[in-house]
Amino acid sequence: MSSPSSSPGFQRPVGIPSFDPRQVPISGRDSHLPAVARLAQTEQALRQRFAKPPVWQPELRGEPAFVERPVAEAAVLLPLVQRSSGLTVLLTQRSAQLSSHSGQVAFPGGRTDPEDRDAIATALREAWEEVGLAPQRAQVLGSLPVYTTGSAFNVTPVVALVPPQPLKPNPQEVAQVFEVPLAFILDPANHQRHRMFWQGREREWFAMPYKDPHDPLGAEHFIWGATAGMLRNFYRFMAAQ
Description:
The protein is of the alpha+beta class. Helix content is about 15%, strand content about 30%. It contains 4 helices and 12 strands. Strands 2, 3, 4, 5, 6, 7, 8 and 9 form an 8-stranded mixed β-sheet that branches. A hairpin with a 2-residue loop joins strand 10 and strand 11 (about 200-210).
């Protein structure tokens, strides 16, 4: 990531409330929806699905705007790490030093630069700058529909398979890099709905709290907002018949 302000939805414009999303009541859970079958979560199955995608519609196109400014283009990388135990989703936790959205969970990614030829180039460049993920080692499978953030970014999620590799997070922007099993993300029983009233309207978002079993302190990563929204669309893509 070239700068904190380059990341989609990360620069806090005037008017955005500061609140702890964990304290917003859960309005619903989606345990009634089916989890994606494990056989559909293999590398080969993912390659086939992106090569011949099903007819489907994203559940979320974006968030109600809370700023008035021209929409900017951006992209994020949704990296699927090829672990022997199964695929995982690589995510970051933003540095507490940042003046906006500090400590939040995000994908590697950011604003499109003029020299970027497309969204894939943006996502790979930002992942390299932000966490040191080597672009030549990423096998891009395809992209998910554009997700528009409330802070006026059109974000293209780029899905890629990546082998386990040493990473070098930029300490100015990233406090931690962690992985969540893909099976956890693709089970809607782990998806929460949260709702609050602000700026004269009701706003709702998804959250996917994940407790890392490898963390001796049992830390919870609270995945929510745009990141959870794009993951929810990924679930819908994978679950489509």
